[in-house]
Specification:
Blueprint lengths: L2 E4 L5 H13 L4 E4 L5 E3 L2 H13 L13 H11 L6 H8 L1 E3 L14 E3 L11 E3 H8 L5
Parallel strand pairs: 1-2, 1-5, 2-4
Antiparallel strand pairs: 3-6
Length: about 140
């Protein structure tokens, strides 16, 4: 049975490192509500940093940086893993990230974990991953 983590209000970097450690230990993890995770820091500075990341490289050869919120979260987790090695690739395959809560996933709400470090614990400004995605040009439905 995979661990289900609700990313609502979770600080992205802290969530990513926690999930990466658990995946390397062999645990399967499902992250729901990825668009509600937050990135701490000045909103304009964070948006500019991610915009710059998207502009680096060649559109045909990469590096490719995502616009979608679930893929931004998965990319942050990938950054915490040795993803070019066998154990890192296997750990990344054990992680599933979803926008919202998928209907086909049978979730018992008592078994949903919340990330340890949350937005309530910080006093600095922050931006939600959904808002960042919209600034990067993601058009959903």
């Amino acid at each position: 049975m995979p661990a289900i983590i609700d990313a609502s209000g979770a600080i992205l970097g802290r969530l990513a490192s926690e999930v990466a450690k658990r995946a390397l230990k062999g645990e399967e993890i499902i992250i729901i509500n990825a668009e509600k995770a937050v990135i701490s820091g000045n909103k304009e500075a964070v948006v500019e940093k991610y915009r710059h990341r998207r502009q680096i490289g060649n559109p045909k050869k990469g590096p490719f940086f995502p616009k979608r919120p679930d893929l931004i979260v998965k990319r942050a987790i990938r950054g915490m893993l040795p993803y070019k090695r066998k154990r890192g690739k296997e750990a990344l395959k054990r992680i599933k990230v979803f926008i919202g809560v998928p209907e086909d996933l049978n979730i018992n709400h008592e078994k949903v974990e919340r990330a340890k470090k949350r937005v309530e614990d910080i006093s600095s400004p922050f931006i939600e991953v959904l808002e960042l995605s919209k600034h990067l040009g993601w058009n959903h439905e």
